[in-house]
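User: structure tokens for this one?
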Amino acid sequence: MYTNHMEFIEWARKYDTGSVDMRSRAKHVKFYTNIEDAIAGKDIIYTDSILDKAKEDLCYLLDMQL
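Assistant:
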């Protein structure tokens, strides 16, 4: 349990400054920007990998398992 707690604390320290390659603020901002663009009707080219990543992010945000 201690190890899990320390791993969480380490991740939490990096959340605000982390890249889009990890669960971070930057990744969530990018995710929501894509949603806002889609709602606004902007032309976005979605590849399978982008859609898969969006699905993973959405499941994470909804705290679900794939």
